[in-house]
């Protein structure tokens, strides 16, 4: 959920790996899209930015997918596609699709193929997917659970594992298409194109990319001229004593840049995705705004608890209590709902 007064780590497995190490779109086609932007236009006035943010928050609060307009596409199969594990995979049937990644699932549903999806992984938290059987334990895929659903095609990414489970699925004769994770805006259209091609609906993929590109452009048009705040992405899990600041490659840096701001961690020279928070690191970063995931903020008892972390209260963001949080399953999902995230950031991180 969103809080207008006051954001999920990158792809799950990759984020966990990055955390373990530290502890021890706007490409795309031009033209009109397949749906309207939240505000129905791209007027760059502050009122437009606020209206877009309010509409985006309302849509995200529903936690639902907005499919492309019109009749659901009919897959044209078979197709043979390149898989990111170096294989060529032939897909002959898309009647029982199993995405093993929440962002991938969002794309499949938005393309209009949600009725063919037979299961989900733990990161698919939107309403349409929650009724489906879950095939992961923590973040590991259960081959037995996957095979019990009799999928005709499985969509994974390079962070999906364990490898033994994917091999067991392949050995059962099920095509497994592996995709590169999306960790920045320019990855979104590429991944959409690849998923649509693998499922035999390339035209729907082009339409979705047009819609997302149009909405992203409208969101960025609303950035106030001359405003360039420094924004720090903090990944916190208070109960586990995890306190990290994002830097280059965190996943949030691309969103912050797209919203017309500067990633404070990257500018401060943090060349790793995540660095443990220290008073020195915060003093160097000096963020004007702090960006977080909602559960992370909750884990430290909200803004009152956040400013008690050493160094936070001494930053401009801490002194002014300027904190923006976005629901964990959306912030770094890098899927069809990412333009809504940019709408919110554009409105919330710039001083009015």
UniProtKB/TrEMBL annotation:
<dbReference type="Pfam" id="PF01497">
    <property type="entry name" value="Peripla_BP_2"/>
</dbReference>
<feature type="signal peptide">
    <location>
        <begin position="1"/>
        <end position="31"/>
    </location>
</feature>
<keyword id="KW-0732">Signal</keyword>
<dbReference type="InterPro" id="IPR050902">
    <property type="entry name" value="ABC_Transporter_SBP"/>
</dbReference>
<protein>
    <submittedName>
        <fullName>ABC transporter substrate-binding protein</fullName>
    </submittedName>
</protein>
<feature type="domain" description="Fe/B12 periplasmic-binding">
    <location>
        <begin position="96"/>
        <end position="352"/>
    </location>
</feature>
<dbReference type="InterPro" id="IPR002491">
    <property type="entry name" value="ABC_transptr_periplasmic_BD"/>
</dbReference>
<comment type="similarity">
    <text>Belongs to the bacterial solute-binding protein 8 family.</text>
</comment>
